[in-house]
Amino acid sequence: MKKNTPMLVKDILIRKHFGTAKVVAGEKGLSRIIKWVHVVEVIQIQNLLNGNELILSTGMALKNDKTFLSVLQQFITSNTAGLCIEIGTFMKVIPREVLTLADENDFPIIIFEEEVPFVEITQDIHSELINNQYEQLSNLERYSQHLNKKLLEIQSVNDILQILFKELECQIIYREEKNDEVFYPPLSSIRRDLLERKLDDVDNQSHYAEIPIYLLGQKHATLKIYKEDFPLSEFDHLILDRTSTALAQHLLRTIFIEEKRRTEETKWINNWLEGEYSYEQLRAYLGEHELELNGNGAVVCSAQYEKKKNHHSVDITYVQLLFRTIFEQEGFTILIGERRNQFVFILLDKRQVSTWKQRLKEALNRIYDSDLVNKNMISFAHFGVGKYVDDLEDLIISYESSIETIRVYQNSEYPNRYSFFEDLHLHRILSLLHHEKDMKELILEYLTPVIEYDEKYNGKLFQTLRTYLACHGSKQETAKKLFIVRQTLYHRLEKLEKLLGKDFMNPEKRVAIEFMLHSFEYLFPKEKRKQVTAK
């Protein structure tokens, strides 16, 4: 047996007591792995097998052809390694149907044409298996210690892949999310295609394994190994697991160091947001860091955050690292600013403009689904996504519109996790009227009767009016959304007609009232609405 390789059926053919043994069926299955040896002389054995056992038998219970076929099928179903049977004492010949079934399933049948000591065979193979297992555990510990020491001086992922290759002498495939696969040792394109076809072949699955590498709860990379000549052993899987852990530590350390270096970047971005740098200085800064738009656009996303109680020690560098990982995987180069408990993300788009919004939604959903948020380490009031711009000169416009987007949705009746400036529609018009006193008086002129009625009788007419208009006057849909019966809705609509006039659903008046509803929600924050009509 080679170093750290599992014992195969073909390996036992050269051991003591197998000198005169013959393979009479299932020769293609000689590469099956042996993990233990059992002597079996019963016909109901399937529930007692765990797989990869080498079965020894005198054939005493297998004289009946039908019984032999039944027992063989149990061996095959249980994924045993093979059957060694003694010919002469209880069985003279192996039935043809049995040999055919074994060949069809690549299940090795080995015969002894003379009496052999099963006890000595069992002892010999078990000793080899146990010694090999001790050796593998020792090698695993040695490998782990060697890898941990090397982590202090390793400069790249390739250094770790080289250590793995020296240990397992197999083909390694490493791939970071959104990047091409790295083959170690390197392969030509033809050999890569051939290998990929082998990996897709079901018959090769025992020769192949992969393990994901997670950073900050997000899948960052995948590590795969493939052995051409031997099925993978438990040792191979353990080595793969140890290596993936080392890769995660190396990647996290590298990214964390890089994030610390970006502290100066955050300071620069904050100063730019405060107006200390001109557009020319911004373009020069981004050019120095090779962060030009390259024909695509950019957008600014802002978010207010709060560290939760008992989590005030959360490292903002860790938080920024999570953001950077997620946004970059969705195709954005990110610059991060932080000011007054607010993150500002400048996102330079590296992919198709037509997909930017969907990719950004995916990134924001992943942030909300991360452990950082789910474990209440930090909370975000809302993410406001500004105007998507084509030129760096307009980034400040995108920033200002992201802040405006947050402000609008803080006053909204229907707050979301995030909102986009381009979806504000009517609110974009309303934002122009924010400082107009006459507009506020006009809004109250339309809506005060409804507001006062609700305050006095808790009639929920304001909510009913808003929902009724949103449902385009459909009584059935309105009642359904308000969770009330039709009769209750009819009663409320009668009250609205008395307060607003029977013509409140006429086209022009309806548009005006709907505009006033949106204006009211925009111009009067929730906490101030109760005071509005009192003045």
From TrEMBL:
Q: Where would I find the Purine catabolism PurC-like domain in this sequence?
A: 11-129
Span of domain PucR C-terminal helix-turn-helix: 461-518
- Write the signal peptide boundaries: none
Q: Which Pfam families does the record cross-reference, listed alphabetically?
A: HTH_30 (PF13556), PucR (PF07905)
Instruction: List the InterPro entries.
Output: CdaR-like_regulators, PucR_C-HTH_dom, PucR_C-HTH_sf, PucR_dom
Q: Which Gene3D superfamilies match?
A: PucR C-terminal helix-turn-helix domain (1.10.10.2840)
Q: Which domain of life is it from?
A: Bacteria
What's this protein's name?
Answer: Purine catabolism regulator
Q: Which organism is it from?
A: Rossellomorea pakistanensis
